[in-house]
Amino acid sequence: MSLPPMRFVATGDSFITRRLASSEALWQLADIVRDADARFTNFEVLTPGDAFPFAVSGGTWAKAPEGVIHDLQTMGFNMLTWSNNHTLDYGYEGLANTAAALDRSGILHAGVGRNLAEAAAPKYLECPQGRVALIGICSTFHETSAAGQQRPDAMGRPGINMLRFTTTYTLPREQLAALEAMASACGVNDGHAMRVKAGFGKAPEAGTVLFGQHTFKEGSAGVQTEANKADVARTLAGISEARRQGDYVLVSLHAHEALGTDKAVPAAFLVDFSRACIDAGAHAVIGHGPHVLRGVEMYKKRPIFHSLGNFIFHNETIPHLPQDFYDKFGMGLTENVADAIDKRSDTNTKGFAADPWAWKSVVARWNMVGDEANLIELIPVELGFGVERSRRGTPRLSEDEDILPHLAKLSEAMGTRIEIDGNIGRVVL
Predict the structure, then answer these.
(1) Whether pTM exceeds 0.85
(2) What CATH code is carried by the domain that includes residue 54?
(3) What is each CA distance from 29 to 5, 106, 291, 362, 424, in whole angstroms?
(4) How far apart, in Å, are the Cα atoms of 185 and each of 172, 180, 206, 221?
(5) Residue 338 lies in a domain
(6) Would you state the pLDDT for residue 1?
(7) Which of 62, 219, 291, 333 has the fewest beta carbons under 10 Å from its own?
């Protein structure tokens, strides 16, 4: 059976912590969003009500008023995921309050649930032309954020649909032997050895060397990453179900992990996982998380957006922060949020405030006809790099001549060519 033509639009992270003021610039963007059938963004905040902050966070305790959901809907978005490193910033109560607010709004949301089965389940958007499934998953998270599987004899645990992975470092034989000797001499592995002996840990596999929390094996100097097989299998099963229960399938992947020290290049396991999703039948993988653009990859005539960057980035204007945040910088009770953000950014000279690519991104829109994309366009957006904190973070269409060439270069490394026509980039199919 042939699939109906469908038009999609997607953005990266909407880290939206304050209400959006109506403006011509915002409505120009809204017109682009509303022109599609399925309209996606990643919701990287909580609307936790009066829930208390959790002991750990995704970096900043991401809190927003419930009205921001309405603002996203007013812009035209009708589907979102919120499986990310901030989902448990306000604990299980904050998660539950946010889920209730999203339910009240009527917007489709995926990637989080009362247990793992619910968090991993495809959610379906009913469009006049057909049915679009959305699966949300996240590889960057504190272990307490992972949803727990329901059992016949034990309840599941609320949280995110997680994509775990392993990292193995490789070293030439002589260096590996020296590392093993150092581990033995300093006792860095003694605690792990005691846990193994007590039955609470797993002995290193043959041919590997443990050094604290890191695993090494012989080979050319480098690093290998591999996604957890159970998490991959669960996702592929969800895609298989969604292909039979819907018309189109989108997978949203929140991931910070990079290859080396370049945030713009995804770790190898993310590339492998994204391709596996397409192999299983997904029509697009929408990446976000590193807060910068990553390349676009065409795989089997379907797009993998490895990161669409930031769409809204209000991470500096959060209304309140717990004392835990201040403690990281040696600050006390007399200091406030502005003081804390100044301290973290060293008064706008480091971190996101000093990185222009945290404030430049694209909106992606594409058509699907059957199982193939026949048009993919990339529209530049800017968020106000260098302007006052009070005025940066809200998107507007951009005429910055660096954005599309930068994305084209990142995409070329993935075998994708982008032609630039004025202020629009088009993927060459």
Answers:
(1) yes
(2) 3.60.21
(3) 23, 22, 19, 11, 14
(4) 20, 9, 20, 23
(5) no
(6) 57
(7) 333
**Average of pLDDT values for 312-322?**
95
Total domains, the chain = 2
297 and 173: one domain? no
How big is the chain by its Cα radius of gyration, in Å?
Answer: 22
Q: Give yes or no: residues 138 and 178 share one domain.
A: no
CA distance 38 to 363: 13
Which H helix or E strand runs over 92? helix 91-105
pLDDT in tens, 103-125: 999 999 999 999 999 999 999 99
- Residue type (1 letter), 219: G
CB 14 within 8 A of CB 44: yes
Tell me how far apart the alpha carbons of residues 127 and 187 are, in angstroms, rounded to a whole number.
Answer: 60
| Residue 188 DSSP one-character state | T
Closest CA to 35 of 314, 283, 415, 375: 375
Residue 134 has pLDDT above 70, yes or no: yes
Q: Are residues 277 and 179 in the same domain?
A: no
pLDDT class for 62, splitting at 50, 70, 90? very high
Residue 31 lies in domain: 6-151+228-315+355-427
